């Protein structure tokens, strides 16, 4: 009787638990769970009582008090890409893209949409000028930055950035706008390949640029210190010139913060956010406390928050001698220092020791970041939660988080997306898949992977359509993407994982959809692109022989006379042309930064067709079509 009674009690409790679990995660058609929110950006009201959270998957903005209550849910007409609150604390600006752009203006008193403005393709990173009169918006895939009248939405000026402007910050006096370009745009086979920060003088409308250290890519966050003296940029610092034989001590990828003098535009230095034996993968959001004493950085790959003593960091950096002779004059015992002179700092994994705390966050995928007094508010993308971290406490782990909705139950595809972004799969957490494939595309760098020998670096390929367009890798060394995914986990992440992880990543990659090109006009080919399409399909030019629709690849290896100085073969995989407008540089060794250069300087298309007979206007038309795919 006791055994039967105990079994009955156990079954009753188990059934009750199942009821609770099921009622907490209502199933949708197709075997999924409730819709994901995907919180990725957050801003705070001036009084600090309310934060506003942009939800990528939910296509909404949530107003949340820091006690944990969701005060309002505001639906948006398209996927949000960024938030900015006006200085008067009355209006919230939300950039949206799907892919044509909108700016949604939300009245914070009523928590209702007050205005919606149509803008250009894929707007992001809204920033309001300190006087509240101007809204700056980055058009990411068009490579432009626009000034809009903050009351009417009318565009008053436009500036050219370098490549994929994705984050921006304005100085407290409104005189300069600093824009982080997501990716480098250099020949990938050159010695120095790095992303830039674009600087706009808001009065003279002059534009300049500041190059970051060699290997800088995936610029996610940028902020200006409250005193206006420094600009801080969070990014990946790839050691792409090293063979990928190990990961220890940041051999492949390190994670960094670059510091720029806002007045002179000079790069002060770049400090590593990792530790000697533990990476801090994929820095994302970055901001300062109002008093300028604390800098916080979210790490989307290692799921943590860096908290940095900024005055002490600057004191240490500015005291660094410029040369070794100068260091000797200071009578320093050079053997005691990991960095002897300023140029050593970007390679010094111990430079932040004693100046930085690493706090492990609750939830997965921290991205957006806002400071409210002594508290850091962080969005957790995959957990649909909000971390509120009291920086006055000396905790190393945050246990609790604010739930923004029902706890999400991850589908196989969503689990694969998490794994693709998760550096915990990697040895010592140095990198995730997105370290080399940001946004599942390219980082603009050549890497010397060991799958086809040592000493022959090749450009990173987009993962879009990877499973539909075998073989994998430029040299076709992997017969298909399923093999490549597993090889990447073993030989790039240096990890041993259950095959279920790879299966989930496969499932996620298969769901990827191309972004419609910014070259399209109302979703259709322009007149120039129509003419280019005729050339592309013509027998004389012959592009479609190797790049037939609908995937624009014949999935075969070809010798197009592109062999470079490091290559050991002549034939390479024919890539899909879909979305090639965002995958520069081109060819397997990244030798050309534009498609036009590929056709004119590289003579591409002359082996199997007659592209060499085209005049400049025809080449421009052909390029316009290819960039429209």
**How many strands?**
32
Report helical residue fraction.
Answer: 10-25%
Please tell me the overall pLDDT. Answer: 92
What is the number of helices? Answer: 11
Look at the helices and sheets and give the structural class.
Answer: alpha+beta
Strand ordering within the main sheet = 1-2-3-4
Strand content: 25-35%
The low-confidence runs, each spanning 5 or more residues with pLDDT under 50, are: 1-34
Rg (CA only): 25 Å
Structural shape: globular
Major β-sheet profile: 4 strands, antiparallel
Distance between the termini: 72 Å
Q: What oligomeric state best describes the polypeptide chains here?
A: single chain
Describe the overall structure.
- By secondary structure, this protein is an alpha+beta fold.
- Strand 3 and strand 4 (70-75) form a beta hairpin.
- The radius of gyration is 25 Å and the shape is globular.
- The protein starts with a helix and ends with a helix.
Outline of this structure?
By secondary structure, this protein is α+β, with helices and mostly antiparallel strands.
What layout of secondary structure does this protein have?
Elements: H1 2-24, E1 39-44, E2 50-55, E3 60-65, E4 70-75, E5 80-85, E6 91-97, E7 101-107, E8 112-119, E9 123-128, E10 134-139, E11 144-149, E12 155-160, E13 165-170, E14 176-181, E15 196-201, E16 207-211, E17 216-224, E18 230-238, E19 253-261, E20 267-272, E21 283-288, E22 294-299, E23 304-309, H2 310-318, H3 324-329, E24 356-360, E25 366-372, E26 375-380, E27 385-390, E28 402-403, H4 412-421, H5 433-436, E29 446-447, E30 458-459, H6 481-491, H7 499-510, H8 527-537, H9 543-546, E31 557-558, E32 572-573, H10 595-600, H11 616-626
Antiparallel strand pairs: 1-2, 2-3, 3-4, 5-6, 6-7, 7-8, 9-10, 10-11, 11-12, 13-14, 14-15, 15-16, 17-18, 18-19, 19-20, 21-22, 22-23, 23-24, 25-26, 26-27, 27-28, 29-30, 31-32
Helix pairs in contact: 4-7, 6-7, 8-11
